[in-house]
Amino acid sequence: MIRGLVILLAGAAAASGFQAPDVATILRRSIEANQADWKAAPDYDYSERDRKPSGSMTYRVWMIEGSPYRQLVAVNGKPLSAHDQKERQEELQRVIAQRNSESASHRTERVAKYQQDRERDHILMQQLTQAFNFRLVGERRQRGFTVYVLHATPRPGYQPPNTDSEVLTGMRGTLWVDTRTYQWVKVEAQVVRPVSIAGFLARVQPGTRFELEKMPVGDGIWQPKHFAMQSNARVLFLFRRDAQEDETYFNYKKAAGSTSLVHGVLAARRCYDCGSIQ
Asked: Is the dihedral of CA 52, 217, 24, 12 positive or negative?
């Protein structure tokens, strides 16, 4: 839920009701660009590196017959051993064969679960247009892009319609929107006051922070480049639960059909053997 909030925060600004025409145009174009990115996301395979205090894990994420499959390819920046690579490749091929031969009902159920998670993000985007006020504060350079800088603050009187939206009432954020493409280069969000999530008997505390960066992947589409989160919450208002996430995404490629994916896997394995994916 929270991750979906951060990923969609910038694009959701378009309907927020700015009076200045130039700002309204920026926000409208931004949500159009982000909608296109959201629709295109299932069309891409990519690599993902997850960093934790104990080390890092790198995965190749394949879109196979309508939903993703994560294949471990490296640990702490080092490719797997030849034996482990062989096992992972064989497992991937079993998944491809299984999904190619599964019943229509199983496929529908599997894909529906993946799409349900994506649709929750889409619904949250619609709520963000109601939950925040947005203000243009200037233009700057960010990662080589000229960007509009937008500040987002909670809108007084906003009433969340569901538990997913409750955390919005205690957040504020900053958006960096590319002036040429209206894509957003970076999003930062933070909880500024405690928020109770009634359905989960949990309380999200100040100190919870999120950061997302995006990058172009071709054909005018942008996808996530880096996501980081530091969460601070209390469960049952007593037990503290802190968590960190740090994920880097790279090597986006248009997803191949499952019939040709095995050939792509073999090519990827050569990359792993030579150490180009870490």
From this structure: negative
Tokens of 11: 């694009």
pLDDT band at 239 (very low <50, low <70, confident <90, very high): low
Domain total in the chain: 1
Place of tokens 């950061």: 211
Report in angstroms the alpha-carbon separations of 72 from 9, 45, 103. Answer: 30, 14, 27
Q: Could you tell me the pLDDT band of residue 234, with boundaries at 50, 70 and 90?
A: low
CA 201 – CA 216 distance, rounded (Å): 39
Quote the domain boundaries for residue 211: 2-274
* Closest by Cα among 180, 181, 176, 205 to 192: 205
How far apart (Å, rounded) are the C-alpha atoms in residues 182 and 156? 27
- How many residues are present in the chain? 278
Helix axes 82-101, 258-274, angle to 10 degrees: 170
In sequence order, the β-bridge partners of residue 243 are: 231
Query: What are 177's strand-pairing partners?
Result: 148, 184
Non-local (6+) Cβ contacts of 75 within 8 A are 55, 56, 57, 58
This prediction's pTM: 0.79
List the one residue out of 78, 48, 10 whose CA is nearest residue 246.
Answer: 48
